[in-house]
UniProtKB/TrEMBL annotation:
It comes from the Eukaryota. It holds the Pfam family CRAL_TRIO_2. Keywords: Guanine-nucleotide releasing factor. Residues 37-165 form the CRAL-TRIO domain. GO terms for cellular component: cytoplasm. Gene3D superfamilies: CRAL-TRIO lipid binding domain. Coiled coil: none annotated. One of its GO terms (molecular function) is guanyl-nucleotide exchange factor activity. It comes from Steinernema carpocapsae (Entomopathogenic nematode). This is CRAL-TRIO domain-containing protein. The keyword Ribosomal protein does not apply. PANTHER family: LD43457P, RHO GUANINE EXCHANGE FACTOR-RELATED.
Amino acid sequence: MIELGVLLILISTLRCFLFTLKRISCLILEGLRTHEGYSIVTFPDSHCQISFDDYHLLITYLLKVPPLEETHKGYVLIIDRRMDKWSSVRTLFQFITSFFPNPLRVIFLLKPEGVLQRALEVGYRSFVDNYKYKVILCQNSLELRDFIAADRLTMDVGGLLKYNHLEWVQHRMDIERMKSSAAVIAESLSEFGRCLKETELPNDVETTERILEVQTGEHDAIKFG
């Protein structure tokens, strides 16, 4: 069983990560799947440069958001880099190669649109064509909707679903806050129970009553605090 001090450190670390998530646009919406039943993870075109460690934490957390029964078939990634660079595409692909713990069925890439990026595309196509996972290049959101229905896509990639990243992160923070509070209370009660078992009551009534009053106060502090 995790000690209370360690649990509090883990909770603090998770909260720091969720604050970091506010600036990293990557999302997975519970219940959102393709017609084949694959869960959808979207990397919006956010221009946010992240380290591999941030990516690792992000994916580890996000893939735990949906219920297990929703994810057993695998995932589909939608990567929007229309306003970004091919170098950004390559970096993210390298991250995915290094770490993606669940089955990955296909990646839909909305490729960079800039004039310079179109010129550079030839140099990157061999990297994409020989990639570890299946990649489908999409010129625009209309092409993406040939593969995934609009009612299963967020509006930023041409779909019908409204999505606000900050609201989603706040929702996740609220959920984690409730879960962490419950975990702390459960651990505190467990610790209190161990304390009761280990307490040897004296023979005289007055001292016994005093000890029980202290322990009752501790229990109430856990229950109502």
